[in-house]
Amino acid sequence: MRDVKLPLTNKIISKLHAGDEVLLSGVIYTARDQAHRKLSEALEKGAKLPIDLKSQVVYYCGPTKTPKGKPIGSCGPTTSSRMDAFTPLLIENGLKGMIGKGRRSREVITAIKKHKAIYFLALAGCGALAALCVKSSKLIAYPDLGPEAIYRLEVKDFPVIVGVDSYGRSIYDSL
């Protein structure tokens, strides 16, 4: 396992390759379909975003209700292809990393390669275990979206696998 401290830099990203096992520590943001739609609409209108995307990582996740005394409820990944229509625009505007599950479209892989970003895979079905890596959680934007709102998570040793590296190589190419 490789330890990666966030936020991401081009230097860090360039050293990671499809299939590498990584432990992420630092800040990540949750965002799913509807949050992506709102972010994209704001960018298209030239409006200020609720988060600065530069060098950030977005986790495709809608956490469950937070149990008493815990920072977050279960927080497993959602299917990444649901965000594919919005992802290239977010990458063009500074987003460096995404965490989810499943394959990415050709357009997303092209944007990842062009802008030196990276796509991580989180283990599906392990949302309760992933929650153990979350040290704090704070609602940042779009509270009307409920669990699909944007949350700022502080994570420690959050386990992921590089699904698509900055060179455009996908772990799925070998399947």
Structure description:
There is one protein chain. With 175 residues, this protein is α/β, with parallel strands linked by helices. It contains five helices and seven strands; from the N terminus they run βαβαβαβαβαββ. Helix 2 links the parallel strand 2 and strand 3. It is globular, with a radius of gyration of 15 Å.
CATH-derived architecture = Alpha-Beta Barrel
Order of helices and strands: EHEHEHEHEHEE
Query: Biggest β-sheet: count, sense, barrel?
Result: 5 strands, mixed, barrel
Poorly predicted regions: none
Helix content: 10-25%
Structural class: alpha/beta
CATH topology: fumarase
Note the gap between the termini: 22 Å
Sum this structure up briefly.
The chain has helices at 10-14, 33-45, 87-92, 106-115, 127-131; strands spanning 2-5, 21-30, 57-59, 97-100, 118-121, 134-141, 150-164. With 175 residues, the protein is α/β, with parallel strands linked by helices.
